[in-house]
Amino acid sequence: MDVGTVRVGVARSDPHGILATPVATLPRDETGGSDLATLRDLVLEHEVVEVVVGLPRTLRGAVGPAAAAARSYGDRLSALIGPVPVVYVDERLTSVTANRVLAERGIREKDRRSVVDQAAAVAILQIRLDAISAAQRSRG
Fold it and tell me: What's the predicted TM-score (pTM) here?
């Protein structure tokens, strides 16, 4: 997930944990929590084994207000989906990269808003999938 102040981008992997693909962009619902309820439903529907939340650290790697907000959001989701674990991945520049890729594909800025969060979520999940794959290869 790419957790923003306005939207949450959601991605999922294939059953083999190789490739991340976009799922949805959800509007944040700070007061009603409908976004968290939708995420809970997606976790159940897709039989998710782990939720990956991007932590937007600063360029120096520090945990700032945005990362703290993402962690808080992930913690609230965790309370709804237990025992499915929530893990956090450093997502520095994933939204910037997603915007650049979409622009290079000729998608207008106005049209990018609806998909950039999904593209960032794909990048975040792919970071996690690649790390798991590398760890498995190094073991053996």
Answer: 0.87
